[in-house]
Amino acid sequence: MSPLNDRADRAGHTAIAGCGTGGAAEAVHHLDRLILLGIATELHRRTRLRDGESHDPCAVAEDLGAAPRHRWIAGHWLAALHENGLVSRNGAGGYHGLHSPRRAELAEARTRMGSARAALGYPAELAELMLRSLRLLPALLSDEVGVQALLYPDGELTTAEAVYRGNLISRYLNAAAAEVLRDLAERVNRPLRILELGAGVGATTADLLPALAGHPVEFYLFTDLSPFFLDTARRRFGAGFLRYALLDIARDLPHQPGGLDLVVAATMAHNAPHVGRLLDQVAALLAPGGRVLLIETVREHPQSLTSMPFALSTAGGPPERHDARAGTTRTYLRREEWLAALGGSGLRVDVDLPRQGDPLTALSQRLFVATR
Asked: Is pLDDT at 166 greater than 80 in this prediction?
């Protein structure tokens, strides 16, 4: 891997200096376990799985009163419970033998969540998000409550900031990303042209902008699908070289072939129906030597099962996928699939972090930087 990989890694670890990471894998396990037990409790209380017989996911979704667009989530949950040994599956795809969590087991999981949250540097808002999502499962499934109410209660961004910025792995990845941008700014001998896709609450933007201090910037185009995020960003970051635009990555990207120095996509490129096609489009936008910077989750942890699937549901059910995820309900690509997709788009991977063996890999979020 490149010297830039080393510098970015050092910058990331400097940002979390003093935070112990050795217990990350155990902490992640405890958070995952809490959500799995909560889902198992909900299924045991509200569905026919408690009778000990084998039932298909459609029947379970019916028992849950799931709205049509959320019916697929029952099968998604059951697959995760099966993977973690909490329900059995027969050869015909039916599920049986659902684990029924005891009150003491749930209380223990709740207690362990507190220490796990602290070990991972998760603020209290993240723990409250997890617990609130479990309490609201019936309303989420029936579509009486949207996932936006979880992430943006009363229109506030505190919870979303905690999810995307105020935690150990986000601080590491954002600091490493900022080092990549500093390196790029020193190499390009003209004002920079930067595009950020699906910038959302600006959690990564907020760490990237200081890296541009003292460097000429022609524009930094902050885009998102939602006017809400654009208005929030305007108030937060102001104008200057920052520009704002609505953009749907499932449709056409801006038409500036060969003109961009950096395209940023933080925790959003997986939303593309076909990531290979998205990366082909991004590569075409880059000037020679231009870079794409991705922050991506490479494994769906159970702790996101009570929020992320609801955010992804479409009118027709699960999100449409035409890449390696086609025919599945997978949300994310694996690390190896991202590396292959970047290479397939003619991009050379220069940064792939955290390093293998780093305890932070247990959180399954990564920074990929590739150069045209």
From this structure: no
**pLDDT, tens digit, for every residue of 301-328?**
999 999 999 999 998 889 999 999 999 9
Domain ranges of the chain: 3-18+169-298+333-371, 24-120+122-164
Candidates 80, 42, 13; CA nearest to 300 is 80
Residues sharing a CB contact under 8 Å with residue 2, sequence separation 6 or more, in sequence order: 350, 351
Tell me the angle at which helices 24-46 and 103-119 cross, rounded to the nearest 10 degrees: 150
Measured CA distances, 347 to 181, 185, 252, 341, 355 (Å): 17, 19, 20, 9, 20
> Distance of CA 94 to CAs 29, 38, 42, 53, Å?
26, 21, 18, 9
Q: In terms of Cα–Cα distance, which of 232, 272, 265 is closest to 370? A: 265
In the chain, % of residues over pLDDT 70: 98
Distance CA 253, CA 192 (A): 19
List of residues 6+ apart from 93 with CB closer than 8 A? 56, 57
- SS3 state at 349: strand
Which residues have a Cβ under 8 Å from the Cβ of 209 and sit 6 or more positions away?
220, 237
User: For the segment 275-307, what is each residue's pLDDT rounded down to a tens digit?
Assistant: 999 999 999 999 999 999 999 999 999 999 999
Name which of 336, 330, 335, 328 is nearest 304 in CA terms.
Answer: 330
Pairing state between β 348-353 and 365-371: antiparallel
> For domain 3-18+169-298+333-371, which architecture applies?
3-Layer(aba) Sandwich (3.40)
